[in-house]
Design brief:
The protein has 1025 residues and is α+β, with helices and mostly antiparallel strands. It contains 14 helices and 64 strands. Helix content is 14%, strand content 30%. It starts with 32 loop residues before the first strand and ends with a helix. Its main location: membrane.
Length: 1025
């Protein structure tokens, strides 16, 4: 119909829907019992006669309405997780189905620091202890905790994660353990996690464990396991870096289920005692017994976790030389790559001072009267030797680098001097073999002095007055080479010559050429050049005798007055002295150059017959005329430029010296000049050739000094032959006979000792009376030559109860001395470090209040308890009460309910400290309130009496109601909505819905009749005009 207005009006059907807009009412319970920092539960206890409202609002706060109260923090409830354990974690299982058992012994190579001691062994027991025994034969399980806790006077050293009488005999429960050695930085995830805990709790960022033990007690039942309820699962971690040690006790959350009501003896003990006065009891030891048996609830304030306890086991930090030694041994090859076996020590100080390869040093590791000599070679290492007051050789050791002498000596101290384990010293000596003097061979000297008189390496003496530069000796072996050249000049106007310069050059496989020159200067001065650079000497503080030194790579130069010496790489030596404006020299070569020399010093092969061998290989026999010897010498003249460079003076082409035979023919005029030479040919020659008696006497003096040095080099002190190890049993006299290769040797002891007596003929008597440390050192001295030897034998004493128990191959050193104590193998029912104890049932304490009869054992258990006197329990009552249980909510304020065995199987409460009655309702002690976060909002008004012994009737606790709810119940745990409040809310909600429907209808009606411009055309025709 054209012009009609069609409007679509929706039909609205209003339904009265009863929508419950009420809050959800959840029945709940308010508890004034919360956990404190100590892990125990206490009741909310406001001050006496004070009305106080406690409001629980959010999970993070618990506030008092009093303005003076601070917010109480909500403690975390997270329990600690045990480290992985069991076969899957690589652990070993160990259990014995007996009432008591002990584990195998653990023997950490580093020892374990406990208190002020370094313990050698430890074991764990079924009773929640880790024990450090005095000896390997003193192994007990100690089922009963100490009644007083740890006091520092405890007879046994132990760590106690949960010391109480456990029982694995019924086939339930087990233990796992694993030992971790990380001496050399080996990787272990568990060790790293334990280190992380220790660093955090102990605030020790640099801690690195070297030995760790993990022990886990799984489902351990209390004694007697067949009747007791509940089991415990907990873990102990012992960790040490050798100097510091720590213990972590971890208790499985909810896994500590022993029933305190069934523990009839002393309550559980946790903590440790070192056995030498250092101890710590667990904080739980000051808490009620019920809390002690729930260590999984204990909060560690440092970690924020429950069920974790931490202890520092070392009293003070001390260096661990066993660990230092072991780590050094690990870094060293079994046999040194350098030439350790190619050098040894001179057998006396006097001998060593004549061997210029050795120089005095000061190390500071021996006492007064001790002196040291050292020699170093770049390609074979070095050796240092110690000598006593009489010059006797005491000890030698190898060193590889002279500039790291102190570092080289430290490992010997770690392994041999500063720890009590001789086997470590034996391992050290495999890496650094012992250095003695038995294989010492002195160098072979040769001399050049006066108007040159020469003594060859084979001891042949001759005079050679050649003019020029000459090769004195050339030598080489597979590792090195050595050259010594000399330059002569005419002595004044005489037909004779003398040395005015020397030059030596040394090469080795590890060193380039090192060249030293000695140049004569006026007033008997010597200028020294090293590789063409003038040497400036520095005072030698080590020598203390006015000696000056200069140390460079490959050579050590020393100056003492007008004598200058050079030691080339500790191998070949040259010493030059200026006297009467003449240079005199000696050279010493090592035995390795034997059969490998040439030059004016001859062929060194201990055969004087071929010393005068010329470059062409021909030989002049000894005793040949001087003219032939002169010809031999001139064949070794250096043509061209030698080590001393070009000469600045012009030499005559036909110089011929005067010979000794010629001087003798015309010596009658000089009888008075040569009278003081005492027939010495070199003195006579120089006196006659130079017409100067003073020069002749100087030549004789130098010659005697060289001869004396050679004699001392080849002179050995008396030997000491006899046992290097002396073994004795306590109280018994042991006789050892020592002998010597010197008939005039007298034997003495360096230090007197009451247990020893040594006779001059070498008979030693030892009667051990004590274990006081001492060092036995035997001296043998020759009165004829004034040299002495020393021997320091190992002294091993056995203090075992019986001589048959002695283990002389298992020893420990007493202090820093030569005394070692033999181990003991206890038998026949004995125990103790020296098997001094006889096995007796009274060695382990009996159950508390039970007397032990020596030789028989523990008496009967106390009344109402059954057992063997060491283990006691209320077996009968426990069995009768097994089917009894506590009523629901029997104990208020989260008290612990149990069935009492001694009260006729009646329910009994163990209350938090604040409560004084039997059911945890009356609060009469100090406590701090906290909040249970899982409960809904409650408002409770408490009116408490100030009197400490208030009765239940005197406590007026009323529930505060609101305008909507009514709180009721004994603990205000129920909520009810008031009836008038319910109808008011219901009809109010219904009226609101009706108003909402009416309003909606009006709006829609107004919208539909507001005009056609808001309508849609029904068809196209209507839309067209």
């Amino acid at each position: 119909m054209k012009g009609a207005c069609w409007t679509r009006v929706p039909w609205v059907s209003l339904s009265c829907l009863c929508l419950c807009l009420l809050p959800h009412v959840v029945p709940g319970m308010i508890t004034p019992s919360l956990k404190t920092d100590g892990g125990r539960r206490t009741a909310t206890s406001p001050p006496p006669t004070t009305s106080e409202t406690i409001i629980s609002t959010t999970p993070s706060t618990a506030m008092h309405t009093r303005s003076t109260a601070a917010p109480i923090p909500i403690l975390p409830e997270k329990g600690v997780s045990l480290f992985p354990y069991g076969a899957g974690a690589g652990d070993l299982e160990f259990v014995r189905r007996t009432v008591d058992f002990t584990s195998p012994l653990f023997k950490p190579a580093t020892g374990f620091p406990l208190g002020s001691s370094l313990r050698d062994s430890l074991y764990f027991t079924d009773n929640g202890q880790i024990i450090f025994p005095e000896s390997d034969y003193q192994i007990f399980s100690y089922p009963n905790p100490l009644p007083t806790g740890f006091t520092g006077r405890d007879p046994v050293a132990l760590v106690a994660p949960f010391w109480d009488d456990a029982d694995f005999s019924t086939g339930r429960g087990t233990t796992f353990y694993q030992e971790y050695e990380t001496f050399y930085g080996e990787h272990s995830l568990l060790v790293q996690e334990a280190e992380s805990w220790i660093r955090k709790i102990a605030n020790n960022g640099g801690y690195k464990a070297r030995w760790t033990l993990k022990v886990t007690w799984v489902n351990a039942h209390a004694y007697p396991a067949q009747w007791t309820l509940g089991s415990n699962t907990y873990q102990a971690i012992l960790s040490t870096d050798g100097s510091r040690s720590y213990a972590l006790f971890l208790y499985q959350s909810g896994g500590m289920q022993w029933d305190v009501a069934q523990r009839s003896g002393n309550p559980v003990l946790m903590g440790f005692s070192s056995g030498d006065g250092y101890f710590e009891n667990s904080p739980l030891m000051s808490q009620p017994v019920s809390e002690r048996y729930r260590p999984d609830r204990f909060l560690n304030s440092n970690s924020g976790l429950r069920g974790l306890q931490f202890y520092r086991l070392h009293r003070e930090e001390r260096p661990n030389y066993r660990l230092e030694c072991l780590q050094w041994l690990k870094s060293q090859p079994w046999w040194p790559s350098w030439g350790w076996n190619q050098v040894s020590c001179p057998c006396s100080w006097q001998q060593g001072r004549r061997d210029l390869r050795f120089q005095p040093v000061s190390i500071g590791r021996w006492g007064l009267g001790s002196r040291q000599l050292c020699s170093f070679t770049s390609w074979r290492g070095g050796v240092c030797c110690s000598y006593g007051p009489w010059g006797e050789f005491r000890e030698g050791w190898h060193v590889q680098r002279p500039w790291q002498l102190a570092q080289e000596l430290e490992p010997q101290s770690w392994c041999c001097r500063w720890n009590d384990k001789p086997y470590l010293c034996a391992l050290y000596q495999q890496r650094r073999p012992h250095v003695g003097c038995a294989t010492y061979r002195p160098p072979r000297p040769a001399w050049m002095f006066g108007d040159p008189h020469i003594t060859t390496l084979d001891g042949v003496s001759y005079t050679f007055n050649g003019l020029g530069d000459f090769l004195l000796v050339g030598a080489q072996d597979g590792n090195s080479s050595f050259l010594l050249q000399g330059r002569t000049a005419q002595t004044g106007s005489a037909q004779a010559t003398n040395f005015i310069a020397f030059a030596a050059q040394y090469r080795s496989s590890s060193l380039g050429p090192v060249t030293v020159q000695w140049l004569l200067e006026p007033h008997d001065a010597i200028r020294v050049l090293l590789d063409n650079q003038t040497v400036t000497f520095q005072p030698d503080h080590e020598d203390g005798g006015g000696q000056e030194t200069f140390n460079a790579t490959g050579v050590l130069l020393s100056r003492n007055g007008s004598e200058v010496s050079a030691s080339f790489d500790g191998w070949a030596t040259v010493s030059v002295i200026a006297l009467s404006n003449i240079l005199h020299a000696s050279a010493s070569l090592p035995p390795e150059y034997q059969n490998r020399t040439e030059g004016l010093l001859g062929v060194w092969n201990n055969n004087p017959e071929d010393d005068f061998r010329m470059p062409n290989g021909s030989t002049i026999p000894p005793g040949s005329p001087e003219e032939m010897l002169f010809h031999f010498g001139m064949t070794w003249q250096i043509n061209g430029t030698g080590l001393l460079g070009k000469r600045k003076d012009q030499l005559p082409s036909n110089f011929t010296p005067v010979f000794y035979s010629q001087l003798q023919k015309n010596s009658s005029w000089a009888e008075h000049l040569i009278s003081n030479c005492d027939g010495d040919s070199s003195c006579i020659y120089d006196t006659l050739a130079l017409s100067n008696a003073s020069i002749g006497l100087h030549t004789r003096e130098v010659s005697k000094n060289y001869e004396q040095a050679n004699a001392t080099l080849n002179q050995y002190p008396p030997s000491i032959n006899g046992g290097r190890v002396v073994e004795a049993y306590k109280g018994q006299t042991t006789l050892i006979q020592y002998t010597s290769n010197a008939e005039d040797a007298n034997f003495t002891l360096r230090d007197s000792c009451t247990d020893f007596e040594l006779f001059e003929n070498g008979t030693l008597l030892w009667t051990p009376k004590s274990l006081e440390p001492f060092t036995l050192e035997i001296l043998a001295r020759s009165a004829k030559i004034g040299l002495a030897s020393a021997l320091q034998p190992r002294t091993v004493v056995c203090h075992c109860n019986a001589e048959s128990q002695c283990l002389y191959n298992q020893t420990s050193r007493v202090g820093n001395s030569s005394l070692e104590v033999a181990g003991c193998k206890c038998d026949g029912g004995t125990f103790g470090r020296y098997c001094e104890g006889s096995e007796d049932a009274c060695e382990e304490p009996c159950f508390p209040s039970v007397h032990c009869v020596p030789g028989k054992g523990c008496e009967a258990c106390p009344p109402n308890l059954t057992g063997d006197g060491r283990h006691c329990a209320a077996l009968g009552s426990s069995f009768l009460c097994r089917n009894q249980s506590c009523p629901v909510n029997y104990c208020y304020n989260q008290g612990h309910c149990y069935i009492s065995q001694t009260l006729g199987c009646q329910p009994t409460c163990t209350c938090p400290p604040a409560f004084t009655d039997s059911r945890c309702f009356l609060a009469g002690n100090n406590f701090s309130p906290t909040v249970n976060l899982e409960l809904p909002l409650r408002v409770i008004q408490l009116l408490l009496s100030e009197e400490e012994n208030a009765s239940m009737a005197e406590v007026n606790a009323s529930c505060v109601s609101s305008s909507i709810y009514t709180a009721w119940g004994e603990h205000c745990e129920h909520l009810s909505m008031k009836l008038d409040a319910f109808f008011g809310i219901f009809f109010g909600a219904l009226g609101g819905l009706l108003l909402l429907g009416v309003g909606t209808f009006v709006v829609l009606r107004f919208w539909g009749c507001s005009g056609a411009r808001f309508s849609y055309f029904l068809n196209l025709a209507e839309a067209l005009p």
